[in-house]
Amino acid sequence: MIQFLLNQDLIELEAVAPSLSILDWLRTNKGKTGTKEGCASGDCGACTVLIGENKQGNWQYKSINACLMLVGNLHGKHLVTIEAVSQNAFPEFDDLHPVQKAMVECHGSQCGFCTPGIIMSMLALYLNHTSYPGKSTAIHALGGNLCRCTGYNPILKAVEKCFDYPRANFNWQAELTLLTTKLAENAIPNLTNQNCHFYLPQNLADLVKLKAQMPTAQLVAGATDLSLAFTQQLKTPQQLISVSQCQPLIGYQQNQDGMFIGAATPYAEFIKQFCQIYPESTELFNRLGSTQIRNSGTLGGSIGNASPIGDPAPLLIALNAKIELASERGKRVIALEDYFIAYKTTQLKPDEVISGFYLPPRPLNLTLACHKISKRIEDDISTVCLVMALTTDNQHIITANIAFGGMTAIPARAKQTEAALIKQPTELATFKAAAKQISQDFSPLSDVRASAEYRVKVSENLLIRSWHQTFGQIEIQKNHSDNIQLPATRVQHAAL
Ligand SMILES: Cc1cc2nc3c(=O)[nH]c(=O)nc-3n(C[C@H](O)[C@H](O)[C@H](O)COP(=O)(O)OP(=O)(O)OC[C@H]3O[C@@H](n4cnc5c(N)ncnc54)[C@H](O)[C@@H]3O)c2cc1C
Ligand code: FES
Ligand code: FES
Fold first, then answer.
1. Residue 40 belongs to domain spanning
2. Co-location of 151 and 20 in the same domain
3. Contact in structure between 165 and 105 (CB atoms under 8 Å)
4. CA-closest residue to ligand 2 atom 3
5. How far is CA 148 from the centre of its chain?
């Protein structure tokens, strides 16, 4: 059984298909059709709902895509849908919540199909800020929500205006307390429907035991990637084991030995810390999916998917990260670079799970540059991703890690390009010469995102751009509204 709150109602479920999305459950099983289905693939945000999670007694709310998140992962959480937003009745605002009232006043809705999703993204922002956090934060909060008819300016005005009204707070304390008391009796929350099963182990021993018993079972974390197999390819898995509540896989630790990030930690929970150490990766993370995707998606899911175009792999490989794999036989740690063998083939054994990632401490003399080429700034997968990590003395390159996504069947280092950089002066000519080696390192494919020729050319240009960004003296003209804080020794970069 799994237990959670739907708005103010305690829900207990036992017989539900493991691959059922929250969106389908809401609309078909509960008749709650306020949450809309636009794309069923995480791209439009029409299905946005809020998830509340108990963090050491403090309930925190975030936006997610209901079309991607699985019902089984709701265990112990508070699901808030559009139906609950004005339910509490705010008479001073005509029974609308301030986010809804602001949308009306600013004319932020026309056909209205996107509006419930946008209201929920606004509500997440509202609940997490007591005053307007600024336009850049507002744009990020709405980056995963498409509107096809209103235009975004009235919506952004509404985001600002909702903070002008007196605060309106929800009071769900009694229901949240009831849920918390109920949960204690549940050992391994699960769902069963005919011959299909969903398991939600809470500790590592139960997780690896289940995986050893069912080596063909599919693992799932945030389901931002796996759900597409259910919603687009209509696959129906027999056994799903969710790692999303396995405590040792959640969170991060940082000390003098570096950083450990649990495989099931949603991006949103560690990227702030990560970007304090590596501020050059801020834009890469800000452009990974959308707020909704980053609130659910995990590093374990990205590397577990083994896609050649996932953004985290080139970054982690360039930073010499290691991956930890766990099973009933124990744990093993290998270089992430060696984890990928061939397209979607990795070193993961059928009884293993990815438990986390180790990053060494940042070298003092590290020069880092991250670039993502995609057709959209927000919510779009890479055509090419380049991460350059160099160590240097004052004038020469000592070590070079140049990792690419989108250039071959796996995330990989450009070894000949690296060789052309090592021991060379940190001058533009060095990078221009090294860029010529990229076509020796890779023979990329042409696909819907780009031709092979484009991929090679853009990679060459990105390497040269990396020089301008790091060693060159070009003033900034950012292509995004992020407030990127680079180390004082670095000149912020221009969009070349
Ligand atoms: C609209 C949209 C935009 C996106 N944009 C980007 C983007 O810009 N950049 C990018 O890199 N990605 C993007 N993605 C892809 C995806 O969100 C990420 O890859 C994310 O990190 C997947 O994490 P997850 O926890 O949701 O994985 P899941 O979907 O839960 O799992 C993905 C795969 O990993 C396996 N897996 C999960 N956890 C483990 C584990 N602990 N051990 C072993 N295997 C495991 C699963 O079995 C599955 O095969 C996007 C996806 C969508 C839908
Ligand atoms: S329906 Fe489009 S993001 Fe979910
Ligand atoms: S109001 Fe029509 S899609 Fe946004």
1. 2-84+172-242
2. no
3. no
4. 42
5. 24
